[in-house]
Each structure stands twice: as C-alpha cells, then as structure tokens.
Write a structure and sequence with these properties.
With about 450 residues, the chain is an alpha/beta fold. It is built from 13 helices and 13 strands. Among the domains are: about 80 residues, Nucleic acid-binding proteins (OB fold (Dihydrolipoamide Acetyltransferase, E2P)), CATH 2.40.50; about 150 residues, 3-Layer(aba) Sandwich (Rossmann fold), CATH 3.40.50.10550; about 30 residues; about 40 residues, no CATH class. It has a five-stranded mixed barrel with strand order 1-2-3-5-4. A five-stranded parallel β-sheet has the order 7-6-8-9-10, sandwiched between helices. A hairpin with a 4-residue loop joins strand 4 and strand 5. Helix 5 packs parallel to helix 9 and helix 6 packs parallel to helix 7. It is found in: Cytoplasm. This is Exodeoxyribonuclease 7 large subunit. Pfam families: Exonuc_VII_L (PF02601), tRNA_anti_2 (PF13742). It catalyses: Exonucleolytic cleavage in either 5'- to 3'- or 3'- to 5'-direction to yield nucleoside 5'-phosphates.
Length: about 450
C-alpha cells in the first residue's frame, strides 16, 4: 500500500505501542474502503429485517460463507423490490467495517434479482412495452362464442394439460369437434413454434375459439409463454384466444395478450365449452315452450274459425237482418230528433218557472221609491226654509253694520283724494291737501287751507 497506516508512526517510535480498539477498527475500515471498490456480490437472502428507520438489514450467503449487509433508507427507497427470505439477489456494495462491533459488512447501494429475478425483470419490461402499445387494451378483447362449432388447442401432444383439456371437453361437450395444433411448450425457440401454430389456426379459420395451454412449472419452464412473438401472434389472431398456462398464481405475457385468461388448462376448457347437460335441459325447456305456444295458437285459430263460421249466413237472412237493423236505426233517428226538442221545452219551462219565482215585485219597490221621494222633497223644503231664514238674519245684521247707516246717523268719512285711503289721524291733515268727504246723502271734494290738529280721547 502507498498510504501510511494511521498508527505506523506510533509503532515505529516504540515496539510496544498501545492502539485503541476504535482506532484499529477505523484503520481497518479505511483500508477496506480504499482496497475494495464497489463490487457486485451474489447470494441468497437470509435474516432480512426492515428497521423502523427504513434501513434494511440482512445477510447474503452461499454454500460456503455469508456476510452481513446494510442498505440505508436513502438507497432502499429506490429499490424496485423488497428482498424476501431465500431470494437469490445481486447487490452492488462497498466493503466496510462496522466499528462499534468490529464486524465486516457490505454497505449496499443497489439490489437486483439473479436467475429468476432477471427473468422477472425481463417479464416486467416486455409487459410494460406491450401494454404501452395497446396489446392488452380491454377494448380490443373479444367475447367468447356461446356455442362454438369447433375448438382448437395449441399445446404439446405429450403434455398432461392436453389430457386434462380433452377430458373436460369430452365430459362437458362431447358433440363439439376438437382440433389440436401440436407445438412444444418448453425449450429453445418454443415461443416461435407456438406463435406459428396460433397463426395457422387463425389463417385456417376452422375453429371458433382457440386454447393456448400447458401445465404448471417454474418461471423458466413457462418462459416460452412470455416471449414477444407469441404475444403478438395471440393479439393478431382472428380467432378468440383463451390462455390457460400454469396454475392460478402463474401469470405470463400470453395471459395478458389473450382475450380471456383461465387459471388452469382445465379452467380454459370449461370457459370455451358449454355444458351438454345444461344445453339439453335448455333445449327441453324451449321445446316445451314451443309446444305450449303452438297449442295456444291452434286454440286461438279454432276460436277464430268458430267466430267466422257464425258470421257466415245466407244472403236472404243477411238482407232481413240488415232491414231490421235499418228500421232500428230509423226509430233511433226519430227518437233522437224528438228528444232534443222535448228536452229543450222542458228546460225552457224550468227556466221560466225559476224566472217567475225570482221576478221582483215592482209595486212594492215603486211605493218605497215614492215614499223616499216625498221624504226628500220635505227635507229639501225644510232645508230651504232654514237657509232662507239664515240669509234674512245675516241681511239684517249686515244692514245694521252697513257704513251707509253709520253715515245716516251723522258721521262722515274723510278719504285722501290721491290714495283713496281713510284719514284716521289729525297729523295727516295738512294745508292744501285735497280730501274727499263722504256724507249720508253724497260726497264732496275739499281742500284744506288751515289745519289745527287736536288730539282727544273721544267726542
């Protein structure tokens, strides 16, 4: 190593130098981090624990050794999956020393699956790609025929799934012919062979529905059904496709591309085949319904025939019936013509009687009006007499207060000739001022020559 140890100088000064444990562990940790860069390590997961802080603690082991690992929350939150006990994984880690306990550990920065894990990642990538292209769109999927005329099967002739499917079809629908399109279901290049059989069945159009199936197995065994070529062949098929691969918990790309996924091959056979017993039962029910309908129709026809037979009479009898009917119509017409007149007369009599009953007695009202007229005339006469007496009284009072009467008693009224106003104070009498003097028997214009005013309290 080119770098000097942190305690090499102390050891050189004295051969018996004492080093603290923490310093020793720190030096070892520094040496490990500098010596071993980031490296991918594979193994099996054991003792996996997720702490409350979000950190992962586990061990990775193989047949000969194991090593403790830690993946801190900042890295663990970006992991695509959570390891489980027994998973085979690969970790990208840095070799470090956990100083408090002096334990060697791997500081994990990334984790990925190995073996099955890589296949699963490839499965997820292909699934996402095909899903983005719309191959798994539910709007594209077609409904299965209710009564297929023939059923096709794409699988291996030696597969146990073929026997299960054929047994189920023979039990449920022995009347439907079955066509097998043989193809291997495991091995190299199997996906292309399965796709070729699907394309053949679609091209021939000799079946109404197609089953693509095989029994259960590991992900490697089922990998042929995860190949893109088979998924595209299923999606492009003109015949509805049912996928029955593996067990109920197994999912393949073919399941998503097919029109319907069955949990097992037997389930696929049950989905495409109508049960013969139920079909026969339904046929019996329809036959009975048809027989009842036909019987009711015959009864209605017979009743209609009887009614038509009753209407079938001789011409003479028909003329006699028509003559009788005509006479009845004439009588009804005459009665109908007289009835409105009779009803109108009765109604008129009723209205006339009601009018006479409610007709007012004019003589009584006339006497009342005459009495009210006399009372009005008397009231007006009395009111006139009262007004006349009041006018006479007011005239007498006016006569008493008349200025002429005052002048006749010897008084005179002196008015200013210019303004026409009455002269009330001696101060208004000035020499040369013209005045008008009103007396009982006339008036005279005068001019004052000498005035000597004198104020008094009375005459």
């Amino acid at each position: 190593m080119n770098s000097e140890s942190p305690f090499s100088s102390a050891a050189g000064a004295g051969g018996d130098a004492v080093v603290p444990v923490s310093a020793l562990n720190r030096a070892i940790g520094t040496m490990l981090e500098r010596t071993f860069p980031l490296v991918w390590v594979s193994g099996e997961v054991s003792n996996f624990t997720r702490a409350a802080s979000g950190h992962w603690y586990f061990s990775i082991k193989d047949a000969q050794a194991q090593m403790r690992c830690v993946m801190f929350r900042g890295r663990a939150q970006y992991a695509e999956f959570t390891p489980r006990e027994g998973d085979k994984i690969e970790v990208r880690a840095l070799v470090t020393m956990y100083e408090p306990r002096g334990e060697l550990q791997l500081n994990v920065e990334a984790v990925r699956r190995t073996g099955q894990g890589r296949l699963y990642e490839a499965f997820l990538r292909l699934k996402a790609q095909l899903e983005a292209e719309g191959l798994f769109d539910p709007q594209r999927k077609r409904a299965l025929p209710a009564h297929p005329r023939s059923i096709g099967i794409v699988t291996s002739l030696q597969a146990a799934a073929l026997r299960d499917v054929l047994t189920t079809l023979a039990r449920r629908a022995p009347h439907i012919p079955v066509i097998v399109y043989p193809a291997p279901v495991q091995g190299a290049g199997v996906g292309a062979k399965l796709a070729a059989m699907v394309e053949l069945a679609s091209r021939r159009r000799e079946v109404d529905v197609l089953i693509v199936c095989r029994g259960g197995g590991s992900i490697e065994d089922l990998w042929a059904f995860n190949e893109e070529v088979l998924a595209r062949a299923i999606a492009a098929s003109e015949v509805p496709v049912v996928s029955g691969v593996g067990h109920e918990t197994d999912f393949t790309i073919a399941d998503f591309a097919a029109d319907v996924r069955a949990p097992t091959p037997t389930g696929a056979a049950e989905l495409v085949s109508p049960q013969r017993v139920l079909l026969l039962r339904d046929l019996d029910h329809r036959h009975a319904s048809l027989a009842r309908g036909f019987g009711r129709m015959m009864e209605r026809r017979a009743q209609q025939l009887d009614w038509l037979a009753r209407r079938l009479v001789s011409p003479a009898e028909r003329l006699a019936r028509q003559r009788t009917h005509l006479q009845q119509l004439c009588a009804r017409l005459a009665s109908a013509g007289a009835r409105p007149v009779r009803d109108a007369r009765a109604h008129f009599s009723l209205v006339q009687m009601r009018w006479q009953r409610w007709r007012p007695d004019l003589s009584q009202h006339r006497a009342t009006v005459n009495g009210l007229g006399e009372r009005l005339e008397r009231a007006l006469l009395r009111q006139h007499e009262r007004h006349l007496a009041r006018v006479e009284t007011l005239a007498a009072r006016l006569e008493v207060l008349s200025p002429q009467r005052t002048l006749e008693r010897g008084y005179a009224a002196l008015l200013d000739a210019q303004s026409g106003r009455a002269v009330r104070a001696p101060s208004a009498l000035k020499p040369g001022r013209r005045m008008t003097l009103h007396l009982a028997e006339g008036s005279a214009d005068i001019a004052l020559s000498d005035v000597q005013p004198r104020l008094t309290d009375g005459f």
